[in-house]
Design a protein that fits this description.
six-stranded mixed β-sheet; globular; 10 helices; alpha/beta; single chain; about 35% helix
Length: about 300
């Protein structure tokens, strides 16, 4: 339960809090399970678990980017209903991974359209088939776009999607709120966190680097970027220099892995590394994921 709701529903005042024991006090003064941060009067981000969600509130309706999980998406929906009585117009998926699309099902019958790149939809349907998911367990996009992207004006905001080719998967899109100059990058940026690189869905580290350079060139120095994930202590809201740093990190992953392969190292030996030379800011667990993907990419050439 959110702290504000707890206080409102119980009628507790700040003075009354002093009457509670320490355990009870700590239980509802701790940070809520989910957080909403408004970036403008109309655009915000939602965090709980899984990929970062962005949303737009307009007089014509609500737009949501990504949906996390079936147990977290309803928290977002409830909060947005408190902020607006307008209908849910569009749910846009940046890519197909479950921590971004499993929550689509919570929008069934309340959102007008679910939108994604055609490759993202194909990946989602493939995974659903492989995992033998029942149709009522997932909601696939009913509208798709190709490499030329998609444009839509909603209220006073203009939304445009961009596709620069394979990166984290072969279906990742960038979603630009043009008036606010905010871009949701999905999982095309992991802020100081080792990324998952889905080779089974056409990921390309080499083109991911090119893709990030294109993004930096496409948008301007004032653009704010929302990334799907960040390491502890880092924000999901980043700038162009963070895109550049992540591109450099990916380049260092390839450079390090290639050097180790030339030195005769096996994949098992390579993924035991504890740091990517040249990118010491990327710390913590999961370093085996990009190294495994890089090994696969380099040895299949």
């Amino acid at each position: 339960m959110q702290r504000r709701s707890f206080l409102r529903n119980t009628g507790l005042t700040l003075a009354g809090l002093g009457l509670l024991n320490k355990e009870t006090l700590a239980s509802f003064l701790k940070d809520p399970a989910w957080k909403i941060k408004m970036l403008t009067d109309d655009i915000g981000i939602f965090s709980e678990k899984g990929g970062t969600i962005a949303f737009l509130l307009t007089k014509k309706g609500i737009v949501v980017i990504d949906a996390q999980f079936p147990d977290t998406a309803p928290h977002l929906i409830d909060e947005l209903k408190k902020k607006s009585e307008k209908p849910f117009k569009f749910l846009i998926n940046t890519h197909h991974h479950g921590d971004h699309t499993a929550g689509n099902i919570a929008f069934k019958d309340i959102v007008e359209h679910v939108i994604a790149h055609e490759n993202s939809k194909a990946n989602q349907l493939r995974v659903a088939t492989e995992q033998k998911m029942a149709p009522e367990k997932f909601l696939a996009p009913d509208m798709t776009f190709g490499n030329d992207g998609w444009k839509q004006k909603v209220g006073s905001e203009k939304i445009r999607t961009w596709y620069f080719g394979a990166g984290h998967t072969n279906g990742d899109s960038l979603i630009h709120f043009e008036h606010a100059n905010i871009v949701h990058m999905g999982d095309l940026v992991f802020n100081r966190r080792h990324p998952f690189i889905d080779k089974t869905a056409g990921a390309s580290i080499a083109n991911w680097i090119v893709l990030l350079d294109k993004a930096i060139a496409t948008f301007d120095k004032n653009t704010q970027f929302i990334c799907g994930h960040s390491a502890e202590g880092y924000e999901v809201l980043v700038k162009a220099e963070d895109l550049k740093a992540f591109g450099d990190y990916l380049g260092n992953v390839l450079k390090f892995t290639e050097g180790e392969i030339r030195a005769g190292k096996t994949k098992e030996e390579i993924i035991k590394a504890t740091e990517i030379p040249g990118s010491p800011e990327w710390k913590g667990g999961g370093i085996d994921r990009p190294l495994t993907a890089a090994y696969t990419e380099l040895t299949l050439k």
